[in-house]
Design brief:
This protein folds into three domains: about 110 residues, no CATH class; about 45 residues, no CATH class; about 55 residues, no CATH class. β1 and β2 form a beta hairpin. About 60% of the residues lie in helices and about 0% in strands. The protein is elongated and about 80 Å long. α2 packs parallel to α5 and α8 runs parallel beside α9. The chain has a two-stranded antiparallel ribbon with strand order 1-2. By secondary structure, the chain is an all-alpha fold.
């Protein structure tokens, strides 16, 4: 009875859903809130995410009350059907133009073009399983990322760090930096040019000045690289003898 709404919402693997399975029912409710309804702030969804047993039922009651759902937690089929319909209504309201020209024929054609079995291993992952959460936490600890109560947000942080620090460009830049010899300037030989009031403040000011000089040098290096790159382009024009002129 839920399949058409699941398909409309792009719910993963709707055929495998079983409302009598407690874990799958919890997953559907949380998925609808995370992906479609988004009534609560992320931090306020924690009871729906981590609570079990009676505590989860209490969290579900509060959630349904916030949405003004007319059904009780004891009637799971009715309340789930209401949540799905509510999510579909929100989805349609967010992008009316997207669904205005949808016809049964187009839906059938789109369904026939989808492979029966996805070859993407990510489609078969259970993102709410204990093993997946533990794996994300372990990966974050390995990368020295601070813990977070929402494992999805933590996974996003992992992705950002990996893309920024372990891309080929980042690795090449790190290797170039490694090959550059640092120029060590003894702090005691650094001239500040003024007195900061006491020894500690003077030493701190010297450090700040050296850091500022290093940043200026890095900026100058980048400017020089940009000038060289522009000069290579402007100094090598292509000649078109047919036109009798020189240009690009």
């Amino acid at each position: 009875m839920f399949k058409r709404k699941f398909v409309a919402l792009d719910f993963p693997n709707p055929e495998s859903f079983d409302i009598t399975d407690e874990n799958k029912f919890h997953y559907v409710v949380l998925w609808l809130e995370d992906q479609k309804i988004r009534h609560f702030k992320i931090e306020d969804r924690e009871p729906l995410r981590s609570a079990t047993g009676d505590r989860w039922n209490d969290a579900l009651k509060q959630y349904l009350a916030q949405l003004n759902c007319p059904y009780d937690v004891s009637d799971r089929r009715a309340l789930l059907d209401w949540l799905l319909a509510y999510a579909v209504r929100l989805e349609f309201g967010d992008d009316t133009e997207k669904y205005k020209n949808v016809t049964p024929e187009k839906l059938q054609q789109r369904s026939s073009q989808k492979p029966l079995h996805s070859t993407n291993p990510l489609d078969n992952l259970d993102f709410e399983s204990a093993e997946f959460k533990a794996g994300v936490t372990s990966l974050a600890m390995l990368l020295q990322i601070p813990p977070h109560h929402d494992h999805i947000d933590l996974l996003k942080a992992v992705c950002v760090l990996v893309s920024e620090k372990f891309s080929q460009e980042a690795l090449d830049a790190a290797q170039r930096q490694k090959n550059v010899k640092d120029e060590h300037i003894p702090l005691e030989k650094t001239e500040l040019g003024f007195e900061a009031g006491d020894y500690i403040m003077t030493e701190a000011a010297k450090i700040l000045r050296l850091l500022h000089i290093r940043d200026l040098r890095d900026l100058q290096t980048k400017i020089n690289s940009a000038i060289v790159a522009v000069q290579k382009i402007t100094a090598d024009p292509k000649t078109d003898s047919r036109l009798g002129k020189v240009g690009f």
